[in-house]
Design brief:
alpha+beta; eight-stranded antiparallel β-sheet; homotrimer; elongated; 262 residues; 6 helices
Chain lengths: 262, 262, 262
């Protein structure tokens, strides 16, 4: 069985994610489909890119990741498909794959991108508002079934990209930002271990609250304590043990987070 | 692999949708199961019918759609299964399939309905409150595994049905109603293109707000603008570009929507 | 195809449940995966145990149930796997399987538990905060693929356990507690039919509201009425017909529920 993942901002109440599976299985029922997320904040391309870069590399080589966070649906934004390292991606060319291109460059992985304008691999009727069903699902299904990337359309080399904001590095301080808040209320920043590796002991400040020192895991502190640690993908996160740091500190996306040598 | 979809009002926290998959795969693990929706508004049979009619026709022929929005569970309401066109359906006889019967009649598709009272295809113990697990899941699994519709029970010709409210058509005006509000806050009405095709330019009014003209897709207007367009299944919808029209206008289900020639 | 279920408190927006499927299918794509719940209240081990005991026995024999409600991740709490009756379980040794051990003892089912410390069946890199991805998913995938329980680690006989609070039984009264509130607002107690079988007619009181008599199913009373009945797994539940008893009565978990002979 081939593997395919779905990442959208569709939610799950309207049937719009289920119908994508219907379209995919209509082309090839021998595909395992994992819902990666359907609760990306609507139209939030950067959040989707962060979630993808956190998760997709754990899927087996050859997995096809279909991504539909698509505020420009129905406009001239291109539908694209790509091979990035050993993974395939299908979705709108709106920057949602930016962090994946960046990781490929850092790791020296091959990247090939096509504008999927070969309508042979689309549904026969294309709506103006639901390319997730009409274009991205069938293209993903064909890709997972062995159709070559190059058959889907013309190779391009100018995909839309954005850069994640980078922390400001000073002598004894690093100033980063809040990138994402997860289901547990963990606050994920753009600060990585390499940014603060030269400092021995640190204090972390967010929303006027200062955490002294960092820990390795939740169990080192008692329930209710606010802690700073590196999450499973290497970013500094701020958490409440057995609670929600987001509820306690009420940060907003892009708020500043300061790490100071203590 | 056979294909089966699930549509319920169960939510996803209690395990009641997962257990249906356990029952189905206990009968036949070679079935792909798509969650269509588990967030139908509790007991809202009309909303379920609207979601089904929007989505099921995109699944491959032969798909079995199991539907459990079932306020009458444990009463004398019949469990039924049907073939409508090339699709199969299993669920309570409470009107939830109404819009599918209607579409079949419009398109001249065959319809056959049975009262699934052959308990050979049920679980051995039947609770009074969870026929989704005890009756509809096993019946759906057997149907997806090749059991004939007629073997599940007696053919009936008097299923419960309701009609969707129809827009009022006047000379230069159409008055419809809000049918559904989706995850993005799009407001879906019961007005179709054919209802207003004789008008050239139109104004659309809802909750005291008037939209001048219609567009073809979101990208034609700027973020924050309220627009009217035809959705991917042909109904007039009211949206905010990159936002939530529902949050802006606060409509209620069944509120009137007026389309006037301008 | 083998069957595996997932029960977590991860929610579905961050991709942390999808990535578990990626890890599992990377080991063996021939596994059907059912999401049992990803909306266990964060860190609520007792709630997870109640949901598991309600649902897992309906899955086919040989199913592997992977459970990740894991406030002690990264500490010395053991990762364990077990065979309980004809089912397999993988997760943290924090009591989350308590009600399953209890059911096995009542029914005389065999129980075997191992500390899954054989890192051959883990991912190669283990984070301090996400053993669901790094340990429990691969261990579950190998177990579903035919690896023997004993190969996963050393047999243990001292798993962490808790007892569910038991109702107080008096002459003509039983006092139980609220255990769980479901998606429909049904209030599930720890009172079972055997606790009150000696009483003929009963009144049920919760949050100052008294229900006279019990019913067998929702359809016996009119929409809006508050009723008491036995749910599909034998516990007394308090419901509003076509509504939410939880919204009406606002109970809290562990609140007392009194059943009095009338």
């Amino acid at each position: 069985l081939a593997i395919l993942s779905l990442t959208t901002d569709f939610g799950t109440k309207d049937g719009n994610t289920g119908v994508m599976k219907g379209v995919i299985w209509g082309i090839n029922p021998e595909i395992q489909i994992a819902d990666l997320s359907h609760y990306i904040t609507p139209q939030n391309v950067r959040e989707a890119s962060l979630v993808l870069d956190r998760q997709v590399w754990y899927f087996p080589p050859g997995t096809v990741h279909v991504v539909v966070v698509d505020p420009g649906v129905g406009t001239k934004r291109r539908p694209i498909a790509s091979q990035i390292g050993q993974h395939f991606f299908v979705g709108p060319d709106n920057g949602v794959f930016s962090l994946l291109y960046e990781r490929a460059e850092k790791n020296g992985w091959p990247v090939k991108i096509v504008h999927t304008n070969n309508s042979k691999y689309w549904l026969s009727d294309i709506s103006n508002v639901f390319h997730g069903r009409d274009i991205f699902s069938p293209v993903g299904a064909y890709l997972a079934s062995g159709v070559n990337l190059e058959d889907l359309g013309e190779v391009i080399d100018d995909p839309i990209r954005f850069d994640l904001p980078q922390p400001t590095l000073r002598d004894k301080a690093v100033v980063g930002q809040v990138m994402r808040i997860d289901h547990f209320g963990n606050i994920i920043t753009n600060i990585r271990a390499e940014h603060i590796s030269s400092m021995e002991d640190v204090n972390v400040t967010l929303c006027g609250y200062t955490i002294e020192g960092m820990v390795k895991t939740f169990g080192e502190r008692r329930p209710g304590e606010i802690i700073a640690l590196f999450g499973s993908t290497g970013y500094l996160i701020i958490s409440e043990v057995n609670g929600s740091a987001s509820n306690r500190l009420s940060p907003k996306i892009d708020d500043f987070v300061e790490v100071l040598a203590s």
